[in-house]
TrEMBL record:
Subunit structure: Homodimer.
InterPro entries, per the entry: Adenylosuccin_syn_GTP-bd (IPR018220), Adenylosuccin_syn_Lys_AS (IPR033128), Adenylosuccinate_synth_dom1 (IPR042109), Adenylosuccinate_synth_dom2 (IPR042110), Adenylosuccinate_synth_dom3 (IPR042111), Adenylosuccinate_synthetase (IPR001114), P-loop_NTPase (IPR027417)
Taxonomic lineage: Bacteria, Bacillati, Bacillota, Clostridia, Eubacteriales
Family: Belongs to the adenylosuccinate synthetase family.
Listed name of the protein: Adenylosuccinate synthetase
Reaction(s) this enzyme catalyzes, per UniProt: IMP + L-aspartate + GTP = N(6)-(1,2-dicarboxyethyl)-AMP + GDP + phosphate + 2 H(+)
Signal peptide: none
Amino acid sequence: MSAFIVLGAQWGDEGKGKMTDYLAEDADVVVRFQGGNNAGHTVEVGDKQYKLHLIPSGILYRDKLNVIGNGVVVDPKALFDEIDYLKNAGVDVTPENLIISDRAHLIMPYHKILDGIKEKARGKNDIGTTGKGIGPCYTDKMERSGIRVCDLMHKDVFEEKLRENIEVKSSIITKVFNGESLSFEEMYNEYLGYAERMKPFVRDISVEVYDKIKSGKNVLFEGAQGTLLDIDYGTYPYVTSSNTIAGGVSNGVGIGPTMITSAVGIAKAYTTRVGKGPFPTELLEETGEWLREKGHEYGVTTGRARRCGWLDLVILKSAARISGLTSFAVTKIDTLAGMEKIKVCTGYRFDGKIIDYVPASLEDLAKCEPIYEEFDGWDESIADARSYEELPENAKKYLNKIENFTDTKVSIVSVGPRRDQTIKVKDI
Ligand code: GDP
Ligand code: IMO
Ligand code: MG
């Protein structure tokens, strides 16, 4: 039995989809515990590429159970679009291989409207959200006016909650933001259609996942976003609205922390970020451009160019601490081939001191000056390496630095987007 977490150690897009797919081979169950379709997880198997947003990345295997946890916010339209997309790609999604928590909150059309108009109202201080309604949906959850999947299963309950919400949201949208009023009928009928289609998938997933772990099955918890986008430990307010760190698994699935056996942090060999917010090691000149082009750093969900920078070990060390990471999987190290010198950040100079953690205040973080250590690069492509021994000596030195600085082993090295382009170095 094992219950292990795969989560992002940076600002998202570290390769969680690829690593989940790789590690899912040994899992029976793959569970999403937070976030929603703001995520964009790419999985490549052979010559086929799949882009997943809401459905766990274990769906490409025929024999795995995939679970959407209570901590996830579910946009039913996005869910069924993704199920249809997978069907067209030859992957059948049925209640046999996907179940959805009855406690998950629903993203409603007004959440998407509010996401857009609130961003616009923030002006130059916008967060750069994905526009999927994530923040407004989690706001309603915490404010206790949200509509859950179980409510949608009861027509009268759903009707009452929708009427209350439409009244309040309509007045905010029209009176505060000068937007258009909402129509109850249209939304009600649209969601009743989703209710019918969703019903067979709905379960108490805490019971299901608990039973699987108890009966000796292997369960993988697939994180979305990354540690620095966490609502508590990220670069607030330039974060997402959920707990992306390991602690998010317990409340997002209804599984006690003592049942979790390990946590793998996915770390890109350099750093990227989409959307706004501080980024100490960002490269605003041609090296950043080089990384973006070589690493195809464009968002899966929004198509936006990702900001690129050097690897920041302060961030990885913080991620290891906050999530109790038992190892790192380092991805995209193949992208670095051809660089003469590679820098890594090993501390921040702040207020006359050197610190190795990420300060809470953005004003303090803005004052942090990265301290770099320089490594010699390597020329040879490593996309075809299939063992640790085949890696260039300089790449090994780079990986050793990550291990030593973070006091966390590197268990996996990823040298390309495909499932087979993966080197298992140590047990996870
Ligand atoms: P996620 O959100 O963490 O799942 O990551 P994304 O899918 O948004 O972005 C990662 C991108 O890098 C995807 O296009 C992957 O196919 C690709 N990728 C993952 N691992 C590697 C790797 O080791 N090397 C290269 N070159 N690409 C990779
Ligand atoms: P995956 O799972 C990278 C970012 C957005 C924005 C901030 C808030 O593919 O790694 P939101 O729509 O969540 O309210 O946006 O978070 N963001 C991501 N960045 N990868 C993601 O997911 C992200 N999901 C949200 O760009 O800065
Ligand atoms: Mg992504």
